[in-house]
Amino acid sequence: MDIKQIQELIRFVSKSGVNEVSIEEKEFKITIKTNQAPTVVTATIPAPALPSAPAPLPAAVAAPQAAAPQALAAAPAADTSNYITVKSPMIGTFYRSASPDKPAFAEVGDEIRAGQPICIIEAMKLFNEIESEVSGRVVKVLVENASPVEYDQPLFLVEPA
């Protein structure tokens, strides 16, 4: 199993909602566990099968997911009591635009209205346009483009109109 297959497996597990997946083959064993927190990856690879350099890669893959909750924890520290939080309706991958060469659906400072698309969440190879439930001005985007999101995770702060 190469690093791309491991990364795809991590994405699948994070989207599927299962708590643990273990795969054993004669050359290696991999276990991926989730508890509504960052994904933990454990891989045991015998030294003769692969060079020692690939072993740290699964940990590096999990590190960006661990950084995201820390960034989100800092955001609510500001006074957000008069803002409405737009939350993710599903588990998936958050995208700010329809494609990399298109402009973002909603930027900080943009006026949005109820029913207007504000982002896309990819889940199980389906791209779901997420529409705003409120009208107002976007104050803050709380999620990085192309990063995984959980159900009910805050995506945007909106100052109601």
**Poorly predicted sequence stretches spanning 5 or more consecutive residues:** 49-55, 57-76
Main sheet overview:
4 strands, antiparallel
**Intertermini distance:** 52 Å
Count of alpha/pi helices = 2
Beta strand count: 11
Detailed description of the structure:
By secondary structure, the protein is an alpha+beta fold. It has two domains: 3-67, no CATH class; 81-160, RNA polymerase II/Efflux pump adaptor protein, barrel-sandwich hybrid domain (OB fold (Dihydrolipoamide Acetyltransferase, E2P), Beta Barrel), CATH 2.40.50.100. It is 20% helix and 34% strand. It contains two helices and eleven strands. The strands form three sheets. Strands 4-11-9-6 form a four-stranded antiparallel beta sheet, with no helix packed on it. A hairpin with a 2-residue loop joins strand 7 and strand 8. It is elongated, with a radius of gyration of 18 Å. Residues 49-55 and 57-76 have low confidence and may be disordered.
List key phrases describing it.
alpha+beta; four-stranded antiparallel beta sheet; 2 domains; OB fold (Dihydrolipoamide Acetyltransferase, E2P); about 20% helix; about 160 residues
